[in-house]
Amino acid sequence: MVKDVAEDFPATLMEFESRFTSEEACRQYLVQLRWPDGFVCPHCGGRRSWSASRGRIMCCTCQHQTSATAGTIFQDTRKPLRLWFRTMWYVTQQKHGASALGLQRLLGLSRYETAWTWLHKLRRAMVRPDRDRLSGRVEVDETFVGGDEEGVYGRQIEGKALVVIAVEERGRGVGRIRMARVADASATSLHPFIQKSIESGSTIHTDGWDGYSGIEQKGYRRERTVLSGKGKKAAVRLLPGVHLVAALLKRWLLGTHHGAVSADHLDYYLDEFTFRFNRRTSRSRGKLFYRLVQQAVQIQPTPRNAIVGGKPAG
Question: Are strands 57-59 and 49-51 parallel, antiparallel or unpaired?
Fold first, then answer.
């Protein structure tokens, strides 16, 4: 019986190593995931093609040539696809993520910057633009990422980054999450995040902060729990999902990346944390590899100079 495309992935390291032994094997896997229903020309939409030289695919209708890597994060790479595949396998097999230094050592790369850039390209593939929004009853609150600052209180921001977190309530547990860095804790910043991350009609569970006021006029029900004067323990008890995720996020940034994450790149680390957290119950690490490759061929390429907004870190 032919294996369904959605289940076609190596389940173990042995299967991975035996399957992706050549550039052609890697290329064919990219073709399979990029065009699961058969080739579609990116230029004219034609469905018929033939194989051209150097791994290229030529459209029979318009003669346009493309490839499995064109228009993806692998475009213009000078490194073998086998190295990319080994990187994606390594990244998805690490429960707490991978650092650039660890990847450099694993692959024997001469330059740390190469490993750093690859990880950032892959982080961009960890979030689908069309992913489903959260639904049901959802906790929403903010947390700071960064060191303590003297004279900075409440929701003020100086050198720290403010991250808003949404967590689906699932009985005593938590469901899926969404998170994003925001400029401040005003309605102008918080409302767009809610609309982008949570289905209309859902119940938004927040504290008494005014930045969430008016969300009811945008199609949501709001459950408001005033925490002022009740202390930090009360906040943890009344919004447990958000506080759990915030604590895990900070521990992850400190443990895996040693806290060396610049504000310029924080959004992509949040994407990686979300990708891993939402798939934490997956029994197959191979399926995480499949999902990452699948999404990597669906997003546009990002040149290194567009990624580097500052000094590489993490």
Answer: antiparallel
